Amino acid sequence: xxxxxxxxxxxxxxxxxxxxxxxxxxxxxxxxxxxxxxxxxxxxxxxxxxxxxxxxxxxxxxxxxxxxxxxxxxxxxxxxxxxxxxxxxxxxxxxxxxxxxxxxxxxxxxxxxxxxxxxxxxxxxxxxxxxxxxxxxxxxxxxxxxxxxxxxxxxxxxxxxxxxxxxxxxxxxx
Length: 174
What we know:
Helix 2 crosses helix 4. Strands 1, 2, 3, 4 and 5 form a five-stranded antiparallel β-sheet that branches. 22% of the residues are buried. The protein is elongated, with a radius of gyration of 21 Å. It has two domains: 1-30; 37-166, Muramoyl-pentapeptide Carboxypeptidase, domain 2 (2-Layer Sandwich), CATH 3.30.1380. It has 174 residues and is α+β, with helices and mostly antiparallel strands. It is built from five helices and five strands. It starts with a helix and ends in an 8-residue tail after the last helix.
């Protein structure tokens, strides 16, 4: 019985040690401070290619600090408002400069998140035309996610998971 308690104690100590080291590894890696240059280039191309189809888009969000992410996460939880994200700081591709959000802009300057609108009158949803262009450029779309759908969200993960990014892995710059 005594050896079983010792084994259990060592096991618990090992798990605690693992999580402490895990957190230390995350904190010792500097976070990016701006949109990744490849993502920025693809963002600009997306805006241009959409305009060529008669669709004006605006980027409503791109790089977001971990602190800004935490502020968004608090909405609808500890702060007034509606829940707009399901991840805290350091858990979003926005925090690594690898994601953008977009919306459609009308001729009068109004910004809308309308997935069915067809202002260029070609029989296709303007929103889905933008998504198709984005996918051609290598973005993945939040509207394809299982569960929570994030229709304005486009990201380029370069094959890296959030965990890998937390540990300091970064996509190539070129």
